[in-house]
Amino acid sequence: MDHSTAHLGVSVYVRVAGSKRLGVEPFPQPPEGLLDPSTGGGRHHPDLLPPYPRSAESVSPASMGLAVDYLTRLDQGATPESAFSISLRGARNLGEDRRAEELLARVARGGAEGVAAAFALSSYDQAYRRGPAFFKGEGRVPNGAALENVAAMRRYMGRFFDAYGPMVWDGPTFDGAYTACVSAGDADFVCGDTLWDMKVSSYGATALQTLQLLVYWRLGMHSDRAAFWEGVRHVGIVNPRRATTRRWDLDRVPESTVETIDRELIGYGVSPVVG
Length: 275
Description:
Blueprint: E1 10-11, H1 12-17, E2 41-44, H2 61-75, H3 80-83, H4 85-93, H5 97-109, H6 111-122, H7 125-129, H8 144-164, E3 167-170, E4 182-184, E5 189-191, E6 194-198, H9 207-221, H10 226-229, E7 234-239, E8 244-249, H11 255-266
Parallel strand pairs: 1-4, 6-7
Antiparallel strand pairs: 2-8, 3-5, 5-6, 7-8
Helix pairs in contact: 2-6, 2-8, 4-5, 5-6, 9-11
């Protein structure tokens, strides 16, 4: 079966992970993955672990992931409007602009109230990413355990940026690189020579996550900003819940793997590039 043309016009995540709703099968990988998660070099800082287990938090793992992501961007100098841009678009799709602006003002004031507002505001993401029908309300209010864990993870991310340098590109996209197979996708951020994905998970890196990073890298190399991506020599995953970083050297990725991703997964040389 020609996997490069099996499904058209999906996001990077759907192309890699599959979607029953869309009838997309996960992209086939060997058991260890096209980029073995166990091979990357890593750092662990047990002294910076969150004080409470995930089970003690009142909020969902997805909500925690979004809130920590956006608050980290805020900590790194992004404006509230930029850090929560997807949330604001989702609220606009629902006609709840006024509520979103109220929450954004509370986020900007900081403190526990600001963190609680960040959880409420980020819940609007689904109304943009998947459509208004997928908005399920603002979700649960973070309890004390959730608030303390958020504070610990933000401290860890501060240490991370001290070690790896400031964010040089927040939310890179890949204009000029999308194809009829992969028509959307945005990565987390670039620091120095590394494309990073941030996960707020109790589990370690997976082959699905490393493949997604490789796809972003290859999209970058075919994009309108290919000159920038020439300087990206590593991909990595930072996980503040586990207080770990793991990073992989792109020079060690076999050419056969690059060809598989370019041709069979993204569709270069098979499907036309879209605008």
